[in-house]
Design goal:
heterodimer, A: 291 residues, mainly alpha, 17 helices, elongated, B: 268 residues, 0% strand, transport (chain B), Syntaxin (chain B)
Amino acid sequence: MSSDPDKMMSKADKMTKLTLTRWSADWRGATELYEQAANGFRASNKYEKAKVALEKASKGQEMQASPWDAAKHMESAAALAQKLSIWNEVADFYRKASELYTECGRAQPASDALGKAARALEDVKPDDAIQLYTDACEILEEDGRDQMAFDLYRACANVYIKLEKFTDAATFFLRLGVAADKCDATNSQCKAYLSAIIVYLYAHDLKQAEKCYNDCSQIDAFLKSDQSRSATRLLTAYNEGDIEEIKKVASSSTVSNLDHSIIKLARKLPTGDVTPIQMNTNDDLDEDDLT
Amino acid sequence: MGVVDLITRGDSICKKYDKYDIDKQREANVSGDDAFSRLYSTFESALETVLQKTEDLSPETNKAKAVAMNAEIRRTKTRLLEGIPKLQRLALKKVKGISKEELDVRNDLVLSLRDKIEAIPDTSAPVVGGWPGSTSYSNIRFDTNVSDHRIGSEYFEPTEESDQFKQEYEMRRIKQDQGLDYIAEGLDTLKNMAQDINEELDRQEPLMDEIDTKTDKAATDLKSTNVRLKDTVTKLRSSRNFCIDIILLCILLGIAAFIYNEVKDGDP
């Protein structure tokens, strides 16, 4: 067994190619060689070659009908691709790994793989990251493990907030609420609803925020909670144009128990002008008078 | 008498008594060039719609919908109120064909309209239930106010000592309030942490059950493997003993042959 990874790679390649003398590929031997080659490359910091070796090893495992090992190799390949910053390969590899995990019937590692991919792509390709998060959440929900999906929903909403797409972020918080409802996780549910209301207020969409609050109040658990009380105080403060009250609610302990990004948004409230409702309709009429 | 005859007779009767139809008269009056009348009629119709909405609101048990409708009513009300000054200006303008008394009447009409708009109820009943804590707090406030009021009256004359005592009491109460606020904040954090821990434990419970079943399975597998291994090892050892026996036997034979050779060489 030669210790040079390149020689191992070429040997393994020869073992898998079908020629006149070799009528069936020897996947087992090839896979072993590929794995060893990959280790050798990693030790010598040749990440590109290690990644290729891992890809081939994964294919070999797949041919040997062991999707679990194949998925593990794919994940390692994806991690190396992340180090090399080849982003579309990162997404592809993690997706393939997730599919292989689903083949094994293990939903949790599948969604974990997609979650890792999304986390890697958050900064560079946020839209892809969002897609990956959504897929991961769907896998978990299909399997009935909603509680694991909470973190993914929160991360996804954070990405939307960074992209300043506030309605989408609020939608995701409401989806978190639905998932929490299924598992009777009332605290997370109420926190999710309060976060959604704050996001709407940050986007200075008072009507939407009020509508959201009204919708959420249908749910008993939310209506009797501390979070609902804070939401009422915020909304009445907005309606009365009381900036002091808004700031007081934003620095209260209920809001400080939410996610960091939401706390940041809340501290920046109120965005834009906060005038009492009468003033707002005055603006509407003036425009009508001019036309 | 056929149906057509009935319809034609009904129409002619209606036409005859049209002059007694108040609404229609109002509309006929309005469709003139008079800007004031037109605007006034629009205001009146808007007022009627708002009143209708308030009536729809009262049997509404769904609090969320009630809140939303109240917001709607508030918005229309303010819009109408802003239009009143314009109406007043129109009312004061002299229009040909209108007498002076009618002008005064118009002004009065505008004022009464404004009163009617302002009288529309636009807030729902205060929310009941859910937060008993805050109401009991305000009760406490109220009691101290009453006691202050009593002290202010002439039930006793305030001396220097009692003034000092009262001041000290106030200061200590304020310090107590501050301390209690601090404790309340700490309790809030604790409550949040406890609820999060609760949810985390709920989340981990099914995982632990899974781990439990898997370890049980692994333990039984190990046990059976151990038994099989033991059998194999004893068999192996016995065969090894057998081999050792044969080897020793061979060595003995070799030694015996050697001795025999020696004896044979030594004897002849």
